[in-house]
Amino acid sequence: MTAASLTGADSRTEVPLKRRLKRAERARQLKALALVVPLLLFLLFTFAGPIAGMLWRAVDDPEVRQVLPQTVAALASWDGKDLPDERAYAALAGDIQAARAAGTIAIAAKRLNYALNGFRTILTSTARNLKTMPEPGTAKEALGKINPAWRERATWTTIKDAGGPVTSFYLLGALDLVRNADGAIVAAPPDQAIYREVFARTFLISLGVTALCLILGFPVAYLLATLPPGRSNLLMIFVLLPFWTSLLVRTCAWIVLLQSKGVVNDSLHWLGIIDEPLRLIYNRFGVCVAMTHVLLPFMILPLYSSMKAISPAYMRAAASLGAPPLTAFLRIYLPQTLPGIGAGCLLVFILALGYYITPALVGGAADQMISYFIALYTTETANWGLASALGAVLLLATILLALVYGKLVQGQQVTGGMKN
Amino acid sequence: MLKRKTGKIALGFVAAFTASAALATVAHARDLTVVSWGGAYQDAQKKAYFEPFKKTSGVAMNDESWDGGVGVLRAKVQGGAATWDLVQVESDELAVGCEEGLYEKLDYSKIGGEAAYIQPAVNPCGVGAILYDFVLGYDKDKLKDAPKGWADFFDTKKVPGKRGLRQGPKTTLEIALMADGVAPKDVYKVLATDEGVERAFKKLDTIKNDIVWWKAGAQPPQLLASGEVAMTSVYNGRIDSANKNEKKNFGIVWDGALFTLDSWVILKGSPNKDAAYKFLDFAGKADNQSKLSENIAYGTSNKDAAGKLQPAVLKDLPTAPDNIKNAIEINVAFWLENIDRLTERFNKWAAK
Q: For B311, which of A144, A395, B98, B329 is 20 to 30 Å away at the CA?
């Protein structure tokens, strides 16, 4: 039956049925949309907006353009080969005079100092000593006399690079790269190249903690899923109790346990196993132990829920068909828990990547993860460009991992109808 | 009491970035809001300043606490919905925020004039509130011979055991240079050269494996109490309150102490400027300031405050003549210029 054959039957309206159907459909869709609008708006304002803002800050470069506008304009036509011409010097002198009156010199000085250490002094001392606007044609000479840095090409290329409106400076910095005076991207000086190492450290610690959680959590989840309800509930409370305890409390408890005159060292000493206290805290070991403890429930719960759904009949069937226990476990049981393993590992790993308090309190100076640096630049030194760039790199890496995970899980040929 | 910097976590981060996207809330009349560092210090301030001020002036005010970080203030002011009026800030927060225009320029004529305050306390954007020290702290019950200064701090043969230092280059490099024989007054001259920085790290190398790095002001007294470290750098007020409130027997070496000031600032665009000035005037008076020092071992900014104190109280203050004799002020200008570079350098060194 077609829509056209129906239209004549309906004398009340001229509108074809097909269109009315579409209209009704659209109204339904709109109603459904209206229901999720609050959530969408909430996500937009609290999640997507701030993240977009953060990403924007990683490339935004307004300070120098705002404080030294004439200089930036004058340098636009400069080829960067030799020193710029008198026009640029005069523009700079004018900008400095104006910025000094407005009290904005330090804003540009701060930004330029990131790129060239010592620039803060160059700019502030020049502003202090440039009492009057130099005579036309003598700006170059006058500025060079106040500070010899103005006779260096690098000083000027730094200003040109920082002229905005957008910059790759922070993102490159987050990857230990800098642009040299010729604009080529080169490795940062070795004593300042730390972020790649910190990212690697962050991933390594997260990976280690994830592996530890899996090794420790799997048997616990198995017990939870197979014990009779009474006892498994008791065990579940043991799993959830730390889960409900404050993170700070749990971290500090580890400090009490692991410090050199702590419970563990004292017990070992009393038993005569050690003479000197072992170093269990303020190092990598302490970070891994404390983080594993804190994140363990996130591994156990997904594992438990996937194991709970596995019927014991499968294992019995495998045994009755002659599979030894290990084979039955590896070929029948384990594949069915893979979704739980995947979910647990991803959850723990991504949570571990952003960990801050635990490594800050129980780690040494060489165990600080990327979150420590993001916090440091956000609140203490207020270098939001670098903080955002580090955050952006971390976000990108996390998204890539989640995508890889998605591909892996999709590629799984999980048996037993357990695919999710 | 000062700076539990670990508490700021993602909070500051989230605040910073949501502020940029947040809808500016409508400013409305509210009470004067004074923000300080919390803990024992804020309790002392309540006793000496907040409660008496409310009583005598009749101005309605409430107090909050924060964990520091100029990024937090930047987010507050730029977000256009600052809920704070008066904030107590550290010296680097004062300098950076002043440059960025986050604070109101102070009119000293409303708070007793510049001449009433000690010289380091006077700043166009803020007025000094307290003066406090990073000192060498140790446990008298555990160390028979008192250490003499930073040189002993680096001598693990003479005094075995671990050492506590604040994580990061600031204060750490100055301490290393003083331990290496640089006179306190020359520390920043030496540190301004590449050789000086090398020298500091080389000195740190000698005890690298014996250092426990602390991050929050509450940690060093705990490290001392638990015996984790034999000596540590620590805020002097923390040692004093551990001795008073927890019956500890901690000692302080004042020689080579690093002092710094915390200042009051009025956030830009505050709707309660007049009330804020009234408060600053009240908290700047010598009589009121001496009451603060009686409750907590910090020096204060009014020139005449120390003179109103009992000798027994004065001897434990950073501002006592004997204690400040060989102390140096942490050089804000130096750290503004070099903090990023030296932080990277420090972390490189730590990871080696």
A: B329
B166 Cβ neighbours under 8 A, 6+ residues apart: B134, B172, B213, B214, B215, B233
Q: What is the DSSP string of B258-324?
A: EEEEEEEEEBTT-TTHHHHHHHHHHHTSHHHHHHHHHHSS-EESBTTTGGGS-HHHHTTSTTSHHHH
Q: Are B20 and B76 in contact (CB under 8 A)?
A: no
Give contacts of A 335-374 with B, CB under 8 A: 354, 356-357, 360-361, 364-366, 368, 371, 374
pLDDT digits (tens, 9 = 90+) for B31-55: 999 999 988 889 999 999 999 999 9
Residues of B whose CB is below 8 A from A379: 8, 12-13, 16, 68-72
Q: What are B122-125's contacts with CB under 8 Å, separation 24+?
A: B123/B94, B123/B98, B123/B263, B124/B98, B125/B94, B125/B97, B125/B98, B125/B263, B125/B265
User: Coil, strand or helix: which one is A311?
Assistant: coil
In whole angstroms, give the CA distance from residue B93 to residue B237: 20
Structural contact between residues B16 and A381, judged by C-beta atoms closer than 8 angstroms: no
Question: What Cα–Cα distance (Å) separates residue B40 from each residue in A273, B242, B258?
Answer: 42, 11, 22
Nearest to A260 among B69, B228, B341 (CB): B228
HSE-CB of A95 using CA atoms within 13 angstroms: 26
Q: Report CA dihedral (B237, B240, B241, B242) to the nearest 10 degrees.
A: 120
Query: Which of A169, A177, A378, A383 to substitute to test the interface with B, most B CBs within 10 Å?
Result: A378
Q: Which residue of B has its CA nearest to A278?
A: B228
User: Is the previous residue joined to A165 through a cis bond, with omega within 30 degrees of 0?
Assistant: yes
Q: Does A392 touch chain B (CB under 8 A)?
A: no
* CA dist., res. A44 & res. A26, Å (int): 24
pLDDT-derived band at A11 (thresholds 50, 70, 90) equals: low
Q: How many CB atoms lie within 10 A of CB B21?
A: 18
- Please provide the average confidence, as pLDDT, over all residues in chain B: 90
B142 lies within 8 A of chain A by CB: no
Q: What is the dihedral of CA A35, A38, A43, A46, to 10 degrees?
A: -170
Residues 20-39 of A with CB under 8 A from B: none
DSSP A272: T
**Is residue A285 classed exposed, middle or buried when 0-12, 13-18 and 19+ CB atoms within 10 A define those classes?**
middle
Distance CA A313, CA A307 (A): 13
What's the pLDDT tens digit per position in A260-318? 989 999 999 999 999 988 999 999 999 999 999 999 999 999 999 999 999 989 999 99
